[in-house]
Amino acid sequence: MKILTVALQKDNKLSSASFELVEAARTLGGEITTAVLAADATAMAEQLAARGGGRVLAVSNPALGAYNDETYAKVISELISKYSPDLVLGPATFYGKALFSRLAGRNGGCMASDATSLALDGDRLTVTRPSYGGSVITNLAANDGGPFFVTLRPKVYPEATEGSGEVVKESVDTACFESRTVVRESKVESGGTLNLAEADIIVSAGRGIKGPENVQLVKELAGALGAAFGASRAIVDAGWTQYAYQVGQTGKTVNPKLYMAVGISGAIQHLVGMQTSKTIVAINKDKDAPIFNIANYGIVGDMFEIVPALTKKFKAALQD
């Protein structure tokens, strides 16, 4: 099997998901090619090659400095035409999903998004992904003809840490860099320090925190753990925090090693976005809250006593 993984970068820094894609490709065997696009992709290509990225295609052009769906899709489509992969892998992030839907359309291939595992049955690739809000697990296989485009959920595979590869400075037709859209500037929303989709630890707040003035209490706990801050739809709809933090069916799907739910009752719309977390800790005063049905550990009590106490303990542990 010929596999092309698409590494995504921001500000010349590779996302951790890029190395997870390499590891996922290695579990399937076959010939691995990795593409990285940037204003100057050479240094990032060397990182990928040193961690098992196989033949790493470094495509450099000023037009690739900022992510642009149209430009990236043209460049990667030309690489697909040249290298003829059977499988094209990307991260199931905001940018990854947008890009891969374009790629599948341009290249006449099947697509599966938000995959949680990949397996070979003989020569046939099977992709496992959740459907219907996570209540059904589906196994999909591509039809014959055209590459199979798959976006992989972050954190389901470990990052590739070592291996061998070679860097190939790839050139494409200059027409690929022409776009109807020009990215002038990118701004990061204030207060967001960690990417929810890629975070190993997430601390999320729900309506049980009582009001917007208490969001900071949960953020302080997240800070003490070096975690990303998340939120339920209820407090986003109430205007207590920004949509960028929302976890759930209409927000972000996350898969951290540790998920702490503070004052979250456990509505199904929230659960489908975080129930695959490796370890779930719930803090809620209602012992019958649905969140406890999926939690590995539950703390029943007043969050206004528990959260400050945990924050103090974690800060002290870090100082030691």
Q: Would you spell out the secondary-structure blueprint of this structure?
A:
Layout: E1 2-7, E2 9-10, E3 13-14, H1 16-28, E4 31-38, H2 42-50, E5 54-60, H3 69-83, E6 87-91, H4 94-107, E7 110-115, E8 117-121, E9 124-131, E10 136-141, E11 148-152, E12 165-170, E13 201-205, H5 215-225, E14 228-231, H6 233-237, E15 258-262, H7 268-271, E16 279-284, E17 297-300, H8 303-319
Parallel strand pairs: 1-4, 1-6, 4-5, 5-12, 6-11, 7-11, 13-14, 13-15, 15-16, 16-17
Antiparallel strand pairs: 2-3, 8-9, 9-10
Description:
This protein has 8 helices and 17 strands. By secondary structure, the protein is of the alpha/beta class. The relative contact order is 0.12. Helix 3 (69-83) crosses helix 4 and helix 5 (215-225) runs parallel beside helix 8 (303-319). Helix 5 links the parallel strand 13 and strand 14 (228-231). The protein has 2 domains: 2-177, Rossmann fold; 196-319, TPP-binding domain (Rossmann fold, 3-Layer(aba) Sandwich). Helices cover 28% and strands 28% of the residues. Strands 7-11-6-1-4-5-12 form a 7-stranded parallel β-sheet, with helices on both faces. The protein is globular, with a radius of gyration of 21 Å. The longest helix has 17 residues, at 303-319. The chain has helices at residues 16-28, 42-50, 69-83, 94-107, 215-225, 233-237, 268-271, 303-319; strands spanning 2-7, 9-10, 13-14, 31-38, 54-60, 87-91, 110-115, 117-121, 124-131, 136-141, 148-152, 165-170, 201-205, 228-231, 258-262, 279-284, 297-300. It starts with a strand and ends with a helix.
